[in-house]
User: What shape does this take?
Amino acid sequence: MAKLKFALVSPEASVFEGEVDHVICPGSEGEFGVLPGHAPFMSTLKTGVLRVLDGAGERRFSIEGGFADVSAAGLTILAERAAPLA
Amino acid sequence: MPSLKSLRTRITSVKSTRKITKAMQLVASAKLKRAREAAEAARPYAKRIAAVVANLAANVTGDDAPALLRGTGADKVRLYVVASAERGLCGGFAANISKLARQRIGADLAAGKTVKIITIGKKAREQMRKAYGERVIDHIDLAGAKKVGFDFAKAAANKITDLFAASGFDQCVLIYSEFKNVISQVPTALQIVPATAPQGVEPTDLAGAIYRYEPTEAAILEALLPRYMASQIFQALLENDAGEQGARMTAMDNATKNAGELVNKLTLQMNRTRQAMITRELIEIISGADAV
Assistant: This one.
């Protein structure tokens, strides 16, 4: 199965970069999930938890404000603050 | 001719100055390394946000465009954001930035424009206050910070957008120093309001697909622009930080070399004086013996 290229960057550093299966974002108009091959899409995000699913594993990041940009090149999230949750 | 004692004291003092400048050079080079790493780490965000802005700005035009992108259509009041060093002893670094600022501001004043200034960093405030007094309307202090955080840039961007929303100015120019390499920093002026489309960024090729926006294109751009501005300012601050450390390193390297030369010169002079004294004493003894 195709993988989704995903990058989570904050102004001070790149927090996560890699290929994953599924990302669930806290969009400002409601939560949405991004799978590989998603149509071009852009949304503002609200403060919340970002879930990254890859295989059986799940990673969580807390993010504060920002944007999600989905294009053919993958999903890019520009967050004002981002940190991995344990 | 100075006495032996005073020469000895001077040599000791120059030697300890040399130790201090040497230490400062080492500290600056360590900090420079860290500053460059920070600048490196911030690059992906800046690049991506610029790409997103370029994408959106190409699609949103005319009256739909947010004021930050469109500008007010006038250029009567210009806001200068002057970012400079927090501390001195870094050669001409701060002086070069304020020179460029004074050129630009002087030209604007001569053209009858109103100028407002926001300063970032202590040196910028000192120099701009001295030159322009009450035109300096605000200041952001970098003091006490271990490293340049995004919060400073955000604070600056918030002040700028607030002032813009209150119709405080028409255009905004950011003045900082671009970090070319350790020995060369180039003072640069960058227009941030109305926002300039980032250069060298190609809009993403969607191959015919159409973007969907949530909430709307214009609303996203509206929220994005202040962040883009903060990112630009953040980049400028990081460049400044690296440039300041680089300039300090070079300045301290020169100071160390000069101190070394001075020590050599003084040591030579001291030895000559000492020898001259011994010779004179010998002559006195011999001529004294002759007289007896």
Observations:
- Chain B has two domains: 4-21+252-285, 36-203+211-248.
